[in-house]
Design goal:
This is Tetratricopeptide repeat protein. InterPro entries: TPR-like_helical_dom_sf. By secondary structure, the protein is α/β, with parallel strands linked by helices. It has helices at about 70-75, 95-100, 120-125, 165-175, 195-200, 200-210, 220-225, 230-240, 245-260, 265-275, 280-290, 295-310, 315-325, 330-370, 380-400; strands at about 25-30, 35-40, 50-55, 80-85, 110-115, 135-140, 155-160, 180-185. It folds into 3 domains: about 25-215, Rossmann fold (3-Layer(aba) Sandwich), CATH 3.40.50.1820; about 230-330, Tetratricopeptide repeat domain (Serine Threonine Protein Phosphatase 5, Tetratricopeptide repeat, Alpha Horseshoe); about 345-400. The protein has an 8-stranded mixed β-sheet with strand order 1-2-4-3-5-6-7-8, with helices on both faces. The chain is elongated and about 110 Å long. It starts with about 25 loop residues before the first strand and ends with a helix.
Length: about 400
């Protein structure tokens, strides 16, 4: 006989809402307040498995699809999607609210609750007192209140990246509340770990395994599929760059950018090129990123940085001024522009000083030749030097006027 969705519920819940149970198919809103919405969605086929998903902070949108909804439905789950309009850590929801909502849906043989970051903390807070429930908490954010009203009865699995200090600290706090939890340490998945786990297919594979009551070797699955995850490769590449393992960093970051053309990955790859002694290659690659996202002021500023590192200061000035045109109120852009202007001014002044020094040397040679009857001095050479000095002064004045230095 099929088990009930929850064989024991938290005590003292509020009265049921006037909303009716979900129909046999489609979508039904079971709860809504000013910030949160809970929606029940039938899967693509009749199911005895329910997935409860908490949208992570980066996906605050009550009008959009539930977190991982489409993928889980195609895998044979019905979905109870819990969403919020703005990131409040689901503080407006209580265990009593959840119990009322669950009274309106069918009974299931298995219930898997998925949450990441603040959503993971909400999953632990709201569902840990229920039996016959499995909770998957990815990178729980324990800065969010996780006070528990009743003893823990749910089966809990937690995942975190031990290479990220903030995640380690959060896990230590969580483990003190959920000492019986199954723990998977997934090194180099990043913060939060969900991106690498999603992109590699590990997250959905784990939810499916939990729904079927089987065990998945999380790290083995992740390592076998890490090449599919731009985030995982990016994390590894950045780690290699930090350790000055430049060949490995270049290979990993290039592969990451090939998997997904994300600007932050491309910028990191440009850093590896510059650090490897190829600043002009870094500039060339950064230009391809800017061409793709030419309305992004911060990418123009990044191009300016790499041009400056390649001693292309005039080009760097043009790029930072384009960034300012796109976003004129960003103070670091203005600071960068002023620094480049000052550097250009200093360079021109240095060239003027070198020209004057060369001219003075020529005059001394001429005087020496005249005084000792030596080789006849070339007036043509002295004239050319003087004209060159004059041209430098004219250029300096033009640049100063153009760049508002005078």
């Amino acid at each position: 006989m099929a088990n009930k969705v929850m064989t024991e519920r938290p005590a003292a819940r509020s009265r049921k809402t006037s909303l009716q149970p979900a129909p046999a198919a489609g979508r039904t809103i079971l709860f809504q307040n000013e910030n949160s919405l809970i929606e029940f969605i039938r899967g693509d086929m009749p199911s005895n498995r329910l997935a409860v998903t908490f949208a992570p902070p980066a996906l605050c949108d009550v009008n959009g699809f539930g977190y991982y909804e489409d993928r889980l439905r195609t895998e044979g789950f019905d979905v109870l999607a819990i969403k919020q309009a703005s990131d409040m850590g689901y503080a407006d929801l209580t265990a009593e609210t959840i119990a009322t909502v669950c009274d309106q849906i069918p009974q299931y043989q298995s219930v898997t609750v998925l949450g990441t970051e603040a959503g993971a903390t909400a999953a632990l807070r709201l569902f840990s007192a229920f039996s016959n429930v499995t909770i998957l908490a990815v990178s729980p954010d324990m800065t969010v209140d996780c006070a528990l009203a009743k003893p823990v009865q749910a089966q809990i699995t937690m995942i975190y990246d031990p290479c990220v200090p903030a995640q380690v600290e959060n896990f230590q706090q969580a483990s003190s509340l959920f000492s019986r939890a199954t723990v998977f340490k997934t090194p180099h998945t990043g913060s939060p770990a969900r991106y690498s786990l999603e992109e590699s297919g590990t997250l959905v594979a784990l939810v499916i395994a939990m729904g079927e009551g089987t065990i998945l070797d999380v790290n083995r699955h992740f390592r076998a599929n890490r090449h599919l995850s731009a985030t995982a490769l990016y994390v590894l590449g950045n780690d290699a760059l930090t350790k000055r393992q430049l060949p490995a960093a270049r290979r990993l970051l290039k592969r990451s950018y090939e998997v997904e053309n994300r600007p932050e990955i491309g910028i990191a790859y440009c850093h590896t090129l510059r650090e490897s002694g190829a600043p002009l290659d870094a500039v060339a690659f950064m230009k391809t990123i800017v061409d793709r996202y030419h309305h992004n002021a911060h990418l123009w500023a990044a191009l300016s940085y790499f041009q400056e590192m390649a001693d292309e200061r005039e080009e760097a000035l043009m790029s930072i001024r384009h960034a300012i045109e796109l976003q004129p109120q960003v103070e670091p852009f203005l600071v960068a522009e002023r620094r480049l202007l000052n550097d250009l001014f200093d360079d021109l002044r240095m060239k003027q000083m070198m020209t004057e020094a060369a001219l003075n040397k020529s005059r001394a040679e001429f005087a020496l030749a005249q005084g000792h009857g030596g080789t006849e001095f070339s007036w043509e050479r002295a004239t050319m030097l003087a004209v060159g000095s004059l041209l430098i002064l004219v250029t300096l004045a033009a640049v100063a006027i153009s760049f508002r230095l005078v």
